[in-house]
Amino acid sequence: MGKAKKKFINALKIPRYKKFRDDADRALEQILINRQIEISREAALLFDAWTRSILMDISIAQHRINLVSVYEKLTRENEDSAKKLASIFTRTKRVAFVLSLSAESEAIAQVKGTAQAKPSQRLFDVSNTPRLAPLASFESRIKYLLDKLARKVIDGVQLGIIQGETLSEIKRRIEKILPERKPAPKVPRVLTKLAEATGMSGRGDLSTRQFKKDLSTNFIDDGTWDDMVDAYKKAYVPEFRSDPRRMYTSEASDEKIAAWELENELTEDFIGAVRDGQVESFEQNGVDDSVWIAIVDSHTDDCCLWRDGLLSSEIEKELQGNHSDDESDAIVAPAHIKCRCRAAPSLEVNNNEELPSNAMEFSEWLEN
Ligand SMILES: [Zn+2]
Question: How far apart are CA 131 and CA 268, in angstroms?
Fold first, then answer.
């Protein structure tokens, strides 16, 4: 190696970049959990309605029950829920993309002095396209998942009826088929200052914040930014609690999420939107290559292990050669659900240059 002053380095090795990215990633994780809780609540309401409707019909019609018409009733209820859930999906992906794009640009700017984040067609595409069914709308995709689950429930009910089960036995049978809800995981918070400052009054002075102008372009409209901050804060200020003294104490301890197809798809879509936002930032800021950073331990998947430390350009070559049969075609992390890998931009830095002096902490940045 020569003594060239300019060189490319993995940005996660720059403490200031890493700190900002770590905080942003934790905030993103919290947003995902908050939205999973929202999805679970909405689904739980629907499942309660299903159960009531089925038990009512059985108690009226007994063994002459027409299960086809019961199923039709459930699918009609699914229509409304699918609309609501689809809007949560779209808002969530929008927030994930915008936060990921703008936080990545800000993190780059903190090293390079300047960076940009502009609106793009990709934001629209990402927010409106289900990853696992790109040709479907979110509404039709979610309706399909709900109808599928309703069919499973009806199957169970039919089995219960022919075996002469009582109403409460059939109720238990339905509960077993429905997704089990577990306590929501906790993520260390990065925005404590923000939450305490705004309190019950809601947005406070958040609506006046804007991007640091010398670092990045102010393109995000107030609505999206507020949605982003709200998505993050939600667990602090649940609307249904009226006693302000309880506000910050119980956090999300009584919140539950369920792991079934719908929630998994939200996670999948969310992770994809975060990655797309980061890639968008790389493109807008002339980052040609990124490094794949894996957490290497006994849980690391093979597909992440060989990628660890490689540039996206190197991974691309590997996928055409030695690893052409790899289960994933990702060249930028993460590769799959529960993948703990990250992508770090490969930045050209001048060793003799001072870092820009106007760096902000993540929470300050989001607040401003
Ligand atoms: Zn991974």
Answer: 7
